[in-house]
Every structure is written in C-alpha cells, then in structure tokens.
Model the fold of this input.
Amino acid sequence: RSGHYKPADRPLAQIEAAPDWTAYLLPPDAALPHLPEIVLSVDEARRLRDGLLVDAPSQPPPQSGRGEASLPALRVRVYTPRRVFVGIVSYDARQQKWKPEKIFYEL
Done:
C-alpha cells in the first residue's frame, strides 16, 4: 500500500497485458489530495514556472489533511482556471506571496 493506493487497484499483470499501459497512468496531482488547492491565472502560473513569487491573499486557505500547519509551512496545489495542474507552492507569510516548490506546468 502506498498512500491511498493499494496494489489491487492496478494489478501489474493487468497493466502488462494492456495494449496501452499509459491508460493506467495517473496525473501527478492524484497523489496530493491531502493538500488544499488554489486557482491562479495563467500569467501567475507562468511566473511560478519561471521561479518567481506570486502575490497571495492576506488570508490563504487553511491547511487541510493531517492537522493544521502554521502559515509559513502552508503548502497547496495550484491549478489554472481551466483545471490544469501547475504544481505545489508554499506560503511565504513575511512577503504574503506564494513560492514555487515543485512546478509541472508547461506551455
């Protein structure tokens, strides 16, 4: 078992026998349901992709999942308005900005 996935969810023999094994691939954000999510504009997503910080609201969303996190440690999933997964960012409380941690977004 790995997280909320069990080996029975995707038997290896079934995957190996499939004509298109890529149909069994899950998107990267499928492993992150414990992180809250936010939606940012495409321009903000590009800034994150380029390693730049992005303005955050004065009150970021609360941390969900396994207990409350302090604001400086807050991590969230980021999506564009069209539900394209951008990556994971953390909240910089001092600057009130989102800081890119792991970005998957490509143009």
